């Protein structure tokens, strides 16, 4: 498996390790390394048009290595620069993903024993809401039962928390929020909203059946039904609105028919496909890999049953085991919108559910400006970030950096942030 490791700027024993899993399924960790929170960025990159950015690399102002060791992994196998010549290595569900990542982590710690006692946080975005809860549970099981796969010796992994941006956890709840979100943001009429919502109970019912069934075809049907009844109807009604950021539009005819408007990362692809760059990061020329930021179509077919499954039920179990949970959402994203995530948390069954529903959002202020709102109770925190899309850290880097640092330090997230070093700003 291909990975990129970035040592913290101040590598103290207390510096936490952040394992970042990109979504998709099938999006490469090399993408957020350059686009989101890694130490370097592509100069002049325009994610609306795909222009620029393929030649010049600059130091990022808000790089998370100011606070964390960063570990990006291309997974599942077949994503980005990760490959295998054995078709049996291919992952088809979250059990496979968790097994491979747990094996990877033990080998990583064996190669870097100085990090063995570093607090571990699992981070990611979008479909990482499906990857991260099962991986966290697998880590806890391995810690409890000594289930580390050989050859590396068993080590207890110090998992402290999970943080997911604009995550996809629960199809029944989150797909059912899309029409309400689109209407509240002035994108569709009340008539279309009501018409779509007339059918969303079918999505929720299918999701419940999926959760009770052992048959993959039930969950595949759930994934298809929820997508067709909500997302596809909205993308037909709004063909040129970027489903990841409603502030961005695509020119008519700029995409093949049926392909939704999304970010354009073609410049990132041009950079990672340069032979000198691939050689520098250790990709063997013999592998003959053409880097693709996201292999959505291929991986979605492999993971279709899991796309229909909910993993939100795992969050209370993780919190009961002492794992802290942070969900943060840019509020300009349709597909994994903040309304659906908040509804999911408000309906979640856990020890402090009644208290949680009474938690009032408080303002998050960064450098004197309102950056969003935060709800926080015990091990659970939810942040809505203003003027940010599906990849919130691209749009609000200072705010996301601030809440991540505070989350890792187990501090309240909502206090005003004024110190440049807390935002991750370089001198």
UniProtKB/TrEMBL annotation:
Keyword vocabulary terms for this entry: Carboxypeptidase, Glycoprotein, Hydrolase, Protease, Signal
Protein name: Carboxypeptidase
Matching InterPro entries: AB_hydrolase_fold, Peptidase_S10, Ser_caboxypep_ser_AS
PANTHER family per the UniProt record, alphabetical: SERINE CARBOXYPEPTIDASE CTSA-4.1, SERINE PROTEASE FAMILY S10 SERINE CARBOXYPEPTIDASE
GO molecular function annotation: serine-type carboxypeptidase activity
Enzyme class: hydrolase
Signal peptide: none
Family recorded in the similarity comment: Belongs to the peptidase S10 family.
One Pfam short name: Peptidase_S10
EC identifiers of the protein: 3.4.16.-
Lineage, top ranks: Eukaryota, Viridiplantae, Chlorophyta, core chlorophytes, Chlorophyceae
Record-level GO BP terms: proteolysis
